[in-house]
Specification:
Chain C: It is found in: Cell membrane. The complex is a heteropentamer of chains A (370), B (329), C (321), D (345) and E (555). Chain D has 345 residues and is α/β, with parallel strands linked by helices. Chain D contains eleven helices and twelve strands. Chain D has a domain of 220 residues: Rossmann fold. In chain D, helix 7 links the parallel strand 7 and strand 8. In chain D, helix 3 packs across helix 4 and helix 3 runs parallel beside helix 6. In chain E, the strands form four sheets. A ten-stranded mixed beta sheet of chain E has the order 8-9-10-1-11-16-12-15-13-14, with helices on both faces. A four-stranded antiparallel beta sheet of chain E has the order 4-5-7-6, covered by helices on one side. The chains are: A alpha/beta (370), B mainly alpha (329), C mainly alpha (321), D alpha/beta (345), E alpha+beta (555). Chains A and C meet through strand 7 and helix 4 of A and helix 9, helix 10 and helix 14 of C. The structure holds adenosine-5'-triphosphate (2 copies) and magnesium ion (2 copies).
Chain lengths: 370, 329, 321, 345, 555
């Protein structure tokens, strides 16, 4: 079948000045019996061509929904038609139908999922899974597509690629499978790669391999990459920028270096402190964050982190902080940022009172929960 | 289950001091905290569930679901109270008034080929149809379910041999068994129920076995063993509660199947002995009058349809609630 | 593979033995004497009954009869009918094509309708189309097939004269003739299955459509039909396959009704008549053949699994559980 | 690496659990089998926490379960306070259950969704009929409070009403209800978020102190293991490669595999720089593991000898043992160094 | 019936039945050619006389392939058909039959006296299902090549009647010897108007015109080229098959289908050939089983039932009249006196009789005085019979009898009625009350002897009822051909039966052959002598001589 017939809207000619991806005040809500789940609630960021951004956050903070919203891959029925724009090379993707999106998926933007076992089709041979998008979008003949697939598998470091093409996913190890999904994503040479927790299901050593592979490919092909993960350590030296998500919002965003140097949001700080480090001696008490993230269907007014925050002040409970910025590119949602005078003062006040404005005892927050 | 949702407008409830007491994770008795606990669990645990209709289906189905439950309740009620209802004797033959159309005097739904009141026969027929289906399903569940559970838990040679027996039952034409049994003991309600129940054992064995296989791999079963729990205790305390629901949800749907099956038996003259009314035999008797009095077959068919539909829809909803896949029947 | 098949076939033998023994016992314990029926009321007398019993071999003890029957059955000889005096093997072979074709056509019809219905109602789950399909399938589930069969005859043959109302045209009369005569009965036979298959496929398909590999396929920019039929259908069809295999057993009972109404010379009717006339050897033979077919069909289903799911083929699924 | 031997077993009075030469194999049919655990030995002294790390599928869980005798190990010995468990059957084995308990990776699937928390936690007491004068109820309440749940409200609920972290707390409470001597934790925090992980790790430390537990802590995250363990054992494909006190093992990883694992730990520090890709390839199949040293197929230091000869565990420091012909920090040591000669002092 | 041809009703009076007089007369001259499909209720297990257990539908096939030696006329007398003549000796213990010259079987072998004698030997084998009927025939001797003498053990004035059905259908011995019994059963060779072509069991049986039929010159057909007989068991789909044009004729015994067919025929799409003969539905009582061994109970049960309503249940109102005896009003043996004596619908009388029994200290069931009567009623699970049983149950319950209904499959039903030779008396039967069917066009002697012959020797005496009156009168019937004497004898038997009611009547059964209007002469066929035949009443009804039918517009 000819593919051209199925591409009613060829991608508009890229706007050379527009960034590769610009997300503006994106909201994705789900109308559920429990109430309106505000999975993504006003997210904005920009990704330059060839650059990479890491999106970090706890489970349920909306990372997957965000990445799928950007890809326009969410089932339309579930999500409430939401506000915001996702500008891909200057063109808003949100209003596009999935038929129209088809010309973007593959050649323009592609995605790698968390679990390589479930994201590959277990009953279809590796070869066909790679070549079908090649044949769909690039109109290659079967032989050409196969040759291209071999090239792709080689580039992601799979030995004996010809043989692998004829195998099924279950015949490959987890790491190889994830490499295959990366090869599939890279097949049509996308300008943007979304990787949603691509290593969570993998072993530590394999995880390092895959992350390196992604970083290398991204640099080689100068693709934009959005790397989603729940582990700050994973993105620490593999992305240009980092955005920390909490309860559907980006609470802090900065270049990777800046973020680790001067973190401003108490959540980022807390997250950092609760990660056990190899450098620390055994039996080091960890600074756990007490409590749990709020229910996205019943968000508190005010700062969403306030109930768990050491710095919380009365105004944190009433007003959701807007994005502040004290150096270019470093934004955070906090009235009393860490490492600032306001922050120090707030902390001191709370310590004196023994509890935060949200009513949480300081003891608990500093000493971590038991 | 279909809680009205008026929180669709994003208005966040004002809430101060949400974290009360010493421990944030502690379940506080306060209502909001309890709700939060529950909801929070879902955000924390539920993997991304992009089942598009999941949310809506439940709400959309609300009306239909209640209608179905209502209909089932009506049928059960009619069956139970048939004796006291102001309806004619279901077996009172009035040949002069046979094949009277619905809304005839004294016969709301008309009369059948012997002039018996259809409404009354429906009510009394519900009894037999329900008894057969409930009892047959119960036999299937109790025998088949237990077998499947035991076999799924112990595996090994026991499993191989039991499943071979199940294959024998499956491969044996049910009709032969039914005819044979009917010839032996007559068309008693008991005999027919037992045979249908017996023939459905394989299905429940499979459902229960599949569920048990899944459940026994759960670590809580292992944990109970590691506590020092005895096998019977594990089977009945840990496994059964988790197996019974999928099996029962399946049984609910099977009720409908049995009701229809009884109709086919009636066609072959193998159902409960006359004059006891069953829905199936009413339809089978009505087949003779399809050309001149179609309502005789039509009315019980519609009643059967509504009942089967209701059972299936309710079963579906229950099943989705217990999240058991229809697979591996 | 050959070894696997061999092993599997071996395990079937006890099942078949059990089925045949069960039938034999059951039928021989039934009240009634075939001799009486052979003779008819006019000619019965103690002597004539004894003569007939001797002729039919009914005077030998039960175990002897069973073993003799079993021995012959192994050579393909299922004996001679008491009532119709036919060779049982021949009688069954005459009827089997009809019933087999009926079942195959009905399964094909059911699948041909259920697959697109199931796939699209899963794809559009919750939509009006889905609701309509749900309603219809439940309606079909609740409709006794003898009523459905008569309605089909009434509308499609008497009213519109599209298909013959009754009767069978063997394949020797031409494929077209044959299929027109098979269509209505097969359709009547497939009502329940259309419904069951559609429901089953819909449920599994909804689950599959939620899986990441479908999203991945979407994110490759593949057209919807391709995703539905090339990617999602196969992994969703396992329970469908199992149930279709098991339905073969149920279908056999249903063919009795359909073959009676459409006056088809099939095995179902043969069985029913044989039971009703106490034609023990005929029943025994038919049951055995049915059991063998059932077991074989499910054996093929097992093989199909391995075809559909490469994981089963290599047995690798278990190592990396 | 990936060698056998029992040189690292200690001869002390306070050893609670000794695992010696544990082998677990799962038949695959047609004579093939999964060599899940192949000759693992270690011991646990009273009040000690031993961390067990290794990649997915290397046999950590199988080891843990084999100690619990589910399934019974193919060979080897498991001694609990000197009592051999592998030979015990039926009621004898059942009677040892209260002394040893296990916590699993997936907290949700470890809790029966149909039962109430109170019953789940109290199950052990009811099995062993320790419910005299409501003793059970107060014990359950004590434990629930100890793990940070409000017994009043939490007791009557079912598992699905709790978050993953809370479920893990319930599991911990359940495992402690019978006052076990040894607690085996099989990746109890792997399924949890970093923030909750910290809560649980802290809780385990507290519980250990409070109830005087001896723990075997299984995980694949080296940082987590280091945080909680006194000693650490590294496993690869069914064998132990390195055992030693946490500090020394992390400071001076001797086995190439330990080294690689440590390098792969993601460091939340952009300055640390991306560590070089430590290992090539994937873990071989446990169905037919490599000859000699099982790690040799991925080992940057592998020599021809590694394919021939299986390395035995030998000391490389105080209480620090390694099974490798060519250890990293012991390059100066003769490859065939006689066991028992401490080369690292 | 509305669509009848009308006309000479009066002249036909005294014919078989009122309904038959409405049957369409053939129009025009017979035409050759064309083939038809005939839908039958069922088929037989084979086609060799003595081996095949044919019922009404099967006789449609048998009469096409075989010729009966003797045939019944519309007047109820017996005349030669294939035979040329048949004469008894004085005491009716020996019958001499002359065969036609030049008759050959389909396989070319000639029909000779020798063949008849050999046939008889086969028919009298113990395993033959007509052995019982032929028990009194001691042998057949070929006197000369075309003359056969039958010797009987006892006088039988009605012997020729026996030869109208399978005992009188000559079959080719050549074929029999070549194929054996089972082979000849599956591939029959007779002398009939049609030659057996192919038989697919349960599907269809095809016969083609016999080009060298002996009867062609006598105007006995065959006109059609080919007939396909198809068994269609389901009553509804059999009718639908005719309506949809799949078949050209169908046959039914079910009253409600006849009524349905009448409605369809009103639109002119169908010609109806109905026949109302002696065939009737009834219930038989086992007079050896208490409480039915007491005539009061049997009378009461009969008084309790309103036949009109039973007929209505069966859908036969206006089609089938009530029945009071073995012979319908049109039969010469019908007796007004018996009709008077037969218990009428009188529930009070019934209750009174029952009360007498209940209060009788000597009551036969041995139960204490005052305890109610309980009986079991067995019937086949056919839908219309199920309704009928329920109607019986309702009537009997009305007068206080506790009735339980058993649906029994056909095989068991017959077996239960026959019983086993091991009981005392033999063939006592294993039932209390059965739904049943009695009465045929056969000679009264044969019919009544079968039904009420000596219990010990006659398994066909299902009711086990005998009486001196009957024994005596049967003797009379066996030894005279004089119609008046025979009528008297039949009447006496009828009165005895009406008083003792070993069986009660459900109502007459009309039978129908419905055809495409073009099909001619389905019920108007003739005998070689030119005498009018019994029409579709052949055998027990629903049977036609297809050899004499033709298609009006055959191309
Ligand atoms: N289709 C949907 N309908 C309703 N709620 C949804 C839907 N999809 C996601 N959610 C909810 O949106 C929230 C964000 O989910 P999301 O999967 O994006 O989190 P995440 O950050 O990716 O978490 P994880 O690390 O567990 O993958 C969750 O509360 C989830 O339950
Ligand atoms: N019941 C079993 N049957 C067959 N093989 C098994 C079984 N259980 C475990 N295995 C295999 O044994 C090996 C070790 O498994 P084990 O679960 O102990 O690994 P693990 O180190 O705990 O891995 P993970 O980190 O993934 O939990 C694996 O290859 C696994 O596939
Ligand atoms: Mg996610
Ligand atoms: Mg594990």
């Amino acid at each position: 079948m000819s593919t051209t017939a199925e591409l009613p809207v060829p991608p508009a000619t890229p706007d050379p000045v527009a960034p590769l991806l610009e997300v503006r005040d994106l909201h994705t809500w789900f109308d559920t019996p429990r109430g309106m789940v505000r999975a993504v609630d006003g997210v904005s960021f920009t990704l330059r061509r060839g650059a990479s951004i890491g999106i970090v956050g706890e489970s349920g903070s909306g990372k997957t929904v965000l990445s799928r919203s950007i890809m326009n891959l969410l089932p339309r029925k579930a999500a409430v038609p939401a506000s915001g724009e996702v500008l891909f090379e200057g063109r808003d993707l949100r209003p596009l139908s999935s038929k129209q999106m088809r010309s973007y998926w593959g050649p323009q933007m592609a995605m790698v999922f968390q679990d390589p076992m479930t994201s590959l089709n277990g009953v279809v041979k590796i070869g066909r899974q790679i070549t079908e998008s090649l044949r769909q979008h690039l109109d290659l003949s079967r032989q050409d597509a196969d040759a291209e697939a071999v090239r792709l598998l080689t580039s992601v470091g799979i030995p004996a690629p010809e043989r692998r093409l004829r195998e099924y996913p279950h015949q490959l190890s987890g790491g190889m499978r994830q490499r295959v999904t990366i090869a599939i994503a890279l097949a049509c040479g996308p300008k943007l790669l979304m990787a949603d927790e691509p290593t969570t299901a993998l072993d530590v050593t394999v995880q390092a391999q895959i992350l390196d592979l992604l970083a290398r490919q991204q640099a080689e092909r100068s693709m934009g990459m959005v790397l989603v993960t729940h582990d700050l350590g994973v993105v620490a030296n593999r992305t240009d920028d980092i955005a920390v998500m909490y309860a559907g919002q980006i609470v802090e965003k900065a270049s990777t270096k800046a973020l680790f140097r001067t973190m401003r949001h108490p959540y980022t700080e807390a997250l950092m402190r609760c990660i056990p480090r190899v450098e620390n001696p055994s039996h080091t008490r960890l600074d756990a964050i007490p409590g749990r993230p709020p229910d996205l269907a019943a968000l508190p007014s005010g700062c969403r982190f306030a109930p768990r925050c050491r710095y919380a002040q009365p105004e944190c409970l009433t007003e959701n902080p807007p994005l502040f910025s004290d150096e270019p590119g470093h934004e955070y949602r906090c009235f009393f940022p860490v490492g600032t005078a306001a922050g120090a003062e707030a902390l001191e006040r709370n310590e004196r009172a023994g509890s935060t404005a949200a009513g949480t005892t300081m003891d608990l927050l500093t000493k971590a929960s038991a | 289950m279909s809680a009205p949702d008026d929180a669709a407008v994003p208005v966040a409830p004002t809430r101060t001091g949400a974290l009360v007491g010493a421990d944030a994770e502690r379940a506080t008795p306060s209502g909001t905290a309890a709700a939060e606990l529950q909801a929070g669990t879902q955000t924390g645990v539920t993997p991304l569930t992009p089942d598009p209709p999941a949310g809506r289906r439940k709400r959309g189905k609300g009306v239909v679901y209640w209608f179905c439950l209502g209909w089932l309740a009506l049928v059960v009620l009619a069956a139970i109270t048939a004796n006291w209802l102001p309806i004619p004797d279901p077996n009172a033959i009035d040949i002069i008034n046979k094949t009277a159309p619905p809304l005839s005097e004294g016969h709301l739904l008309g009369t059948d080929g012997l002039g018996r009141d259809i409404l009354s026969r429906l009510a009394y027929g519900a009894r037999v149809s329900l008894v057969i289906s409930v009892a047959a399903v119960a036999v299937g569940i109790i025998v088949g379910g237990t077998l499947g559970m035991v076999v799924g838990y112990f595996r090994g040679r026991l499993e191989t041999s039991v499943m071979a027996v199940i294959d024998v039952i499956l491969a044996f034409p049910g009709l032969v068994l039914l005819l044979a049994l009917v010839a032996f003991v007559g068309q008693s309600l008991l005999a027919i129920t037992v045979v249908i129940g017996f023939l459905s054992i394989p299905v429940y064995t499979r459902v229960a076995r599949a569920a048990t296989l899944a459940v026994s791999q759960r670590e809580y079963v292992l944990a109970a063993g590691l506590m020092g729990g005895k096998t019977t205790r594990i089977l009945f305390r840990e496994i059964m509660p988790n197996v019974i629901l999928p099996v029962a949800a399946f049984g609910l749907i099977a009720l409908g199947v049995v009701i229809v099956l009884e109709g086919s038996l009636a066609f072959l003259g193998l159902s409960v002995e006359a004059p006891a009314a069953t829905w199936g035999s009413m339809i089978a008797e009505g087949k003779r009058h399809l050309d001149d009095a179609i309502h005789i077959a039509l009315i019980p068919s519609v009643v059967m349809f509504l009942t089967v539909l209701s059972l299936n829809l309710v079963g579906d909803v229950l099943r989705s609630r217990f999240d058991v896949r229809e697979a591996n029947l | 593979m050959a070894r696997l098949i061999g092993q599997k076939l071996l395990t079937l033998i006890p099942v078949l033995l059990a089925v045949s023994l069960l039938t034999y016992l059951l039928l021989n314990l039934l009240p009634g004497d075939p001799a009486l029926l052979v003779l008819g009321p006019q000619s019965v007398s103690a002597e004539s009954i004894a003569a007939v019993r001797a002729e039919l071999g009914l005077d030998r003890p039960l175990p002897v009869r069973y073993l003799a029957w079993l021995g012959d059955a192994l050579t393909g000889d299922l004996g001679q009918s008491y009532i119709t005096r036919q060779e049982v093997t021949g009688a069954i072979l005459d009827r089997l094509p009809v019933t087999l074709e009926l079942m195959v056509v009905s399964l094909v019809l059911a699948l041909a309708l259920a697959i697109p219905l199931g796939v699209f109602s899963a794809y559009r789950a919750g939509s009006r189309f889905d609701k309509a399909v749900t309603g219809t399938t439940f309606g079909l589930l609740a409709l006794p097939n003898f009523i459905f069969a008569l309605l089909l005859i009434f509308f499609l043959s008497v009213r519109f004269d599209l298909f013959p109302a009754t009767g069978w045209q063997p394949l020797s009369e031409g494929l077209g003739e044959n299929l027109t005569s098979a269509f209505l009965p097969a359709l009547a036979l497939s009502v329940t299955n259309i419904a069951v298959f559609t429901r089953l496929l819909r449920t599994d398909m909804i689950t599959t459509l939620q899986e990441d590999h479908v999203t991945l396929a979407r994110s490759k920019g593949l057209p919807t039909w391709r995703i539905l039929f090339r990617h999602a259908l196969r992994p969703s069809s396992f329970s469908l396959l199992t149930v279709a295999g098991l339905q073969v057993g149920t279908l056999l009972s249903a063919t009795v009704i359909v073959e009676t109404i459409f006056a088809l010379p099939g095995v179902g009717r043969l069985l029913f008549d044989a039971i009703n006339s106490r034609d023990l050897l005929m029943v025994q033979g038919v049951v055995l053949v049915l059991a063998v077919s059932f077991v074989l069909v499910n054996f093929v289903v097992d093989l199909l699994y391995t075809f559909l799911d490469p994981r089963i083929r290599s047995g690798a699924a278990r190592v990396r559980a | 690496m990936a060698g056998s031997g029992t040189a690292h077993l200690r001869d002390r009075d306070d050893i609670v659990l000794t695992v010696e030469d544990l082998v677990v194999e799962f038949p695959l049919g047609r004579g093939r089998k999964v060599h899940a655990v192949s000759g693992v030995s270690f011991d646990l002294a009273a009040g000690e926490t031993l961390g067990l790390v290794g990649e997915s599928g290397c046999g950590k869980s199988t080891t843990g379960k084999a100690i619990m005798q589910v399934p019974r190990p193919t060979s080897g010995s498991v001694r609990l306070r000197g009592r051999e468990l592998t030979g015990l059957h039926g009621d004898d084995l059942r009677k040892t259950r209260p002394q040893m308990q296990m916590i699993f990776q997936d907290p949700i699937s470890s809790l029966n969704p149909r039962r109430r928390v109170r019953d789940i936690v109290g199950e052990g007491l009811s099995i062993w009929n320790r419910d005299r004068d409501g003793a059970a109820r107060s014990r359950v309440e004590e434990l629930l409070s100890a793990v940070g749940l409000d017994p009043e409200t939490a007791g009557g609920r079912r598992a699905h009403e709790f978050s993953g972290g809370q479920c893990q707390r319930i599991c911990i409470a359940r495992s402690l209800v019978l006052d076990p001597d040894v607690l085996i934790c099989d990746e109890p925090v792997s399924a949890l978020d970093v923030s909750v992980q910290a809560q649980i790790l802290n809780l385990l430390e507290d519980m250990k102190a409070r109830y005087g537990l001896t723990m075997l802590f299984i995980a694949h995250d080296l940082a987590v293991v280091k945080n909680i363990s006194d000693r650490v054992a590294v496993m690869y494909l069914g064998k132990v490669c390195e055992v030693g006190p946490a500090e020394s093992l992390y400071a001076r990883p001797t086995h190439p595999y330990t080294n690689a694992l440590l390098a792969a730990v993601p460091r939340p520090d952009p300055e640390a720089g991306s560590t070089s890709v430590p290992l090539e390839g994937d873990v071989p199949s446990p169905v037919d593991p490599p000859s000699g040293c099982r790690f040799r197929t991925r080992c940057p230091r592998a020599q021809e000898r590694c394919a021939r000869e299986e390395p035995l565990v030998r000391p490389v420091g105080e209480d620090h043992f390694v099974a490798c012909h060519f250890p990293v920090h012991a390059a100066d040591a003769p490859a065939d160094a006689v066991a028992g000669v401490a080369t690292m002092s | 019936a509305c669509g009848g041809s009308g006309g000479d009703d009066e002249e036909e009076a005294g014919g078989a039945a009122t309904l038959a007089t409405d049957n369409p007369e053939p129009t025009g001259e017979p035409q050759e050619g064309g083939s038809i499909t005939v839908a039958l209720e069922g088929e037989s297990n084979g086609w060799l006389p003595g081996t095949s257990a044919a019922a009404a539908p099967g006789y449609n096939v048998l009469y096409s392939i075989y010729d009966p030696l003797i045939m019944q006329t519309a007047e109820g007398t017996y005349e030669p058909y294939l035979a040329e003549s048949i004469e008894p000796n004085e005491d009716f213990t020996s019958w001499t039959m002359k065969l036609r010259e030049g008759v050959t079987f389909h396989d070319g072998s000639p029909l000779t006296a020798e063949v008849i004698a050999q046939n008889l030997a086969i028919l009298k084998e113990p395993t033959s299902n007509v052995a019982g009927a032929l028990a009194e025939v001691t042998g057949a001797t070929a006197v000369d090549p075309l003359t056969v003498r039958y010797d009987l053990a006892a006088p039988n004035a009605a012997f020729p009647a026996l030869l109208t059905t399978t005992p009188g259908m000559p079959f080719s011995m050549e074929n029999y010897n070549a194929l054996g019994k089972d082979g000849a059963n599956a591939e029959p060779v007779g002398t009939g108007p049609f030659v057996f072509e192919e038989w697919r069991r349960d599907d269809q049986l095809t016969v083609t015109a016999n080009e060298s039929y002996w009867g062609s010159d006598l105007g006995l057909g065959p006109y059609l080229d080919e007939i396909t007989f198809r068994p269609i068991p389901d009553e509804d789909s059999r009718l639908q098959s005719l309506l949809s044009g799949d078949v050209d004729a169908f046959q039914t015994l079910r009253q409600s289908v006849i009524r349905q067919a009448q409605e369809e025929a009103a639109d002119g799409g169908m010609a109806l050939h109905t026949f109302l003969g002696n065939n009737a539905g009834n219930s038989i009582f086992n007079t050896l089983v208490p409480p039915l061994d007491d005539p009061r109970v049997r009378q009461a049960l009969t008084h309790a039932v309103d036949q009109e309503q039973l007929i209505e249940v069966l859908g036969g109102t206006g089609i089938s009249p009530p029945q009071t005896q073995f012979f319908s009003e049109e039969s010469p043996y019908y007796s007004e006196a018996v009709a008077e004596a037969y218990p009428d619908y009188d529930p009070e009388k019934a209750e009174q009789l029952l009360q007498e029994y209940i209060d009788d200290p000597q009551r036969s069931d041995g139960l204490p005085v005052g305890s109610p009567i309980a009986i079991e009623y067995n019937c086949q699970p056919d839908p219309s019979l199920v309704e009928l049983s329920q109607a019986y149950q309702a009537f009997w319950s009305n007068v206080g009898v506790d009735v339980s209904l058993n649906a029994v499959d056909q095989a068991s039903h017959i077996q239960n009625a026959i019983g086993s030779p091991a009981t005392d008396p033999p063939f006592k039967g294993d039932f209390t009350a059965n739904c049943w069917r009695s009465g045929s066009q056969n000679d009264p002697y044969i019919v009544l002897r079968n039904e009420f012959g000596p219990v010990a020797k006659q398994p066909l005496n299902f009711t086990n009822y005998t009486s001196d009156v009957i024994d005596e009168q049967l003797q009379v019937l066996a030894t005279t051909q004089d119609l008046e004497t025979r009528k008297e004898a039949v009447e006496k038997i009828g009165l005895d039966l009406a008083e003792n009611v070993p069986q009660l009547w459900t109502g007459a059964t009309a039978t129908l052959i419905g055809t495409r209007p073009e099909l001619q002469n389905v019920s108007g066929w003739e005998l070689p002598s030119g005498a009018e035949g019994i029409g579709t009443g052949l055998f027990t009804g629903g049977t036609a001589l297809w050899g004499q039918t033709w298609l009006a517009d055959a191309e």
